């Protein structure tokens, strides 16, 4: 039991989006919440989860569990990424560029959360496509997953 408590503490969790969803049924409207959560260990592993439930806490718990099960490994070169990458995922386009030490994280909201959770300290990014936060989070995750390790 102790091991699971330690694992829970080492992860950085951030709720990116809470969305209220309603569905028309025969008996009336069925309302629920959809929550997008980013989880990372700040050492090069990051994951994204989407949870749906009637209450926010349940949705966050589901999203966090999913994200922890689907973590990806991000290759790092010191405190930044190894090379520049441009990814188009649906309507979202995300450009990630390595930056010199001391630059910091220069990124918009959705990209910033994913990059910080991954443990990247110096990076420059630009969101070129949609303003939809969920799409931008998934595009950023895809970009980080496509990075190649440069020796």
UniProtKB/TrEMBL annotation:
Ranges for domain S5 DRBM: 11-74
This protein's GO CC annotations: cytoplasm; small ribosomal subunit
Biological process per Gene Ontology, one example term: translation
Residue runs in coiled coils: none
GO molecular function, one term: structural constituent of ribosome
Origin superkingdom: Bacteria
The entry's keywords: Ribonucleoprotein, Ribosomal protein, RNA-binding, rRNA-binding
Pfam families: Ribosomal_S5, Ribosomal_S5_C
Function: Located at the back of the 30S subunit body where it stabilizes the conformation of the head with respect to the body.
Family in the record: Belongs to the universal ribosomal protein uS5 family.
Subunit (UniProt): Part of the 30S ribosomal subunit. Contacts proteins S4 and S8.
Annotated domain remarks: The N-terminal domain interacts with the head of the 30S subunit; the C-terminal domain interacts with the body and contacts protein S4. The interaction surface between S4 and S5 is involved in control of translational fidelity.
The name this protein goes by in its record: Small ribosomal subunit protein uS5
Species the sequence originates in: Candidatus Daviesbacteria bacterium RIFCSPHIGHO2_01_FULL_40_11
């Amino acid at each position: 039991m102790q091991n699971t408590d330690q694992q829970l503490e080492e992860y950085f969790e951030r709720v990116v989006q809470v969305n209220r969803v309603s569905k028309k049924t025969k008996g009336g409207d069925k309302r629920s919440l959809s929550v997008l959560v980013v989880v990372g260990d700040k050492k090069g592993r990051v994951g994204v989860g989407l949870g749906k439930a009637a209450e926010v806490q349940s949705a966050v718990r589901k999203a966090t569990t999913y994200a922890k099960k689907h973590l990806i490994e991000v290759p790092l070169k010191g405190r930044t990424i190894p090379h520049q990458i441009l990814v188009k995922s649906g309507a979202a386009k995300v450009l990630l560029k390595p930056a010199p030490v001391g630059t910091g994280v220069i990124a918009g909201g959705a990209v910033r959360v994913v990059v910080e959770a991954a443990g990247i300290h110096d990076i420059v990014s630009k969101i070129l496509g949609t303003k939809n936060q969920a799409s931008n989070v998934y595009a950023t995750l895809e970009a980080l997953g496509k990075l190649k390790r440069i020796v």
